[in-house]
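Question (not urgent): is this output format expected?
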Amino acid sequence: MKKQALLAVMASALIVTYPIGAQANDSIRTIDRETVRVAENVKAEAPVSVDDFIQSALDVLTYQHGSKEMREEIVKRWTGDTEVGSTKDITKGDISKVLVRALGIEEKEETISDYMQSAKIHGLLKVYSQADETVTAEEMESILENAKQYMLKGIDNKGVSEISVEDFMKNPGDFGFEMSPDGEYISYSSEWENRMNVFVKKMNGEDEPIRVTSSKDRDIAASFWKGDHILYVKDNGGDENYHIYSSSFNGQEERDLTPYDGVRVQLISNLTGVEDEILIGMNKEDPTVYDVYRLNIKTGELDHVAKNPGNIAGWLADHEGKIRIAIESDGVDSTILYRETEEDEFKPFVQTEAGDMVSPIAFSKDNKSIYALSNKERDKIELVVLDLEGNEKVLYSNPHVDVTGVFYHSTTDAILAGAYFTDKLHYVFFDEKFENLFNNLMDELNVSESELSIEDYNKELTKFIISVSSDKEYGTYYYYDTETEELTKLTELASWLDRETLADMHPISYTSRDGLTIHGYLTLPKNKKPEQLPLIVNPHGGPWARDVWGYNPEVQLLANRGYAVLQVNFRSSTGYGKAFTDAGNKQWGLKIQDDITDGVQWAIDQGIADPDRIGIYGASFGGYATLAGITFTPDLYAAAVDYVGVSNIFTLLDTIPPYWETMRNDLYKRVGHPEEDKELLEAVSPVFHADKIKTPLFVAQGANDPRVNKAESDQIVEALKKRGIDVEYMLKENEGHGFQNEENRIEFYHAMIEFFDKHLK
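Got this back:
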């Protein structure tokens, strides 16, 4: 989302395709051939209530075994007007409606008779069944078995044709489409000389696109319009010291506007309405903090606008481009500061405490109030508006998850929509016209809200760039003109991939050993029964992030090779509220790792995963979780891949990038203090316990990584080699925190697949 459409979580409900082969989690109920226990001990010939049947169906036909909220959402899709939680006996008419919807085979059914007919045709009910018949517990077991067998229909357990690593990991095509301020041109990233560069094309024109950048060493990381210029961002070999470059409209001139060695630049404001100038933050004077500069994109002239005293973690400009908000922080507690003019001193505006977050989005058009995302004095992040006295009005909140994104339109000074993630991406609308546009596009493209995203729009809200993506769709971009009602396809990412061979990504939930609800995703290989599969658990990075439903090339690659892939939003993950994130404080290698282990055990208990063929693979914090997994649960994993992962928390904290200095206290609070928590950090740093590792290990690292230094990988590799253990080690001298260059990505994933196949098949 662009044009101040802020989506904080990475970064995408029709009838859900439900999984197969799921056995019940004992914390909910158990179903087997000999005994059907619903709630308490129920006789096989006893009638079954509506609620008992639905709860049993949820256990058998979905992977939502731990989340009350997600189960309720699914029940709403299944039951329609049927009373949820009812203790009345369920009829075969009700059952037919539930199962037809649950299995995604609903077409034009309107009456119970229609649903009964569909259920009989698909073999869910016997042909002589009557709509008003009740069912016994024994019959329920048989009916649910029929539903499971229907879902297995057509699976011959041979998998699908193998897709090459290159096809999954090469540059996917054109992406990052953005509209010029007048809406007449679009820019986008496309491949040139094996690197992603920026191109410009006139809309509704026949002219060939013009390439406006010429990067051969690194992909262009991002680009944006300023007037008739393209500005773009690039680092050097993965060092994350991003500079801002300019390119003229015809691509004849490129210029580094911030040519300072070792300096990192961030965009603060595009200064819409101000010609030729933008606001940027740079750590040029002090590498630990960002000062504010006004940059003339034509001359390169810098004007020092605001000096950082050493504790300002963020800035916000008003609609006139004046810096009037600063976020003061010691890394734990923070204060939002405000000033009336740039000549005035900043004064406290809103005070937060540990765990609180107030993130300003934009000033209102009259500069008299501020839109923000906030969890101050509550658990979930909500969309709020603050007056200049700090008084707050809540515009939207979700009882179960954080609000993660906002569409703000500066021209009309309107919040158009908000976004949040539960199982998938969902929206709440505040503008009726915008909502109608969104719904019409959903209908025309035949997609769900979770698959549709508004990427960019002009200030008149008449021209839009939209995208469609899903778990099996990398992304297709469209240009839409509301005046002509013309929808033009721009491109389809990775169009060479056969979508029919890609794997379904199922939202899951389970209960941790200490009672927390853990959400995640299970991707099952296509045309394979979900029984005794080799499984790769893939912990996400951060750990203050989360996995979301959508296309993931590495997950699809693993599934294509026959692996089930488990992604776990363990405690400390974001999006589920303050308490859930804080539950991971100082739990690296402890309860966080237990959540991952519990997820693996859940998959084993369901019969999905072969306990002798479990692998673990993760990057960054996921790399740490990989090393912790094979260190502290060495018998669980048969193979492990650590990608830019942490092995020694002491050296991690000692080598954080200088511009993270304002977050140091927060790291101490969430990870541990190197002196006060010395014993804890020694206990959970894998490098000090390398003698416990016996799992085959493959390590990959970028030499220029500023977050997880090369020494993190060097240490664990050296410690294991001292014990005579051979570790595969891939080091790339021209990469940083993850491999960006196409040839390096392809080499890494070839090696990873070969490694897992060697040890898990």
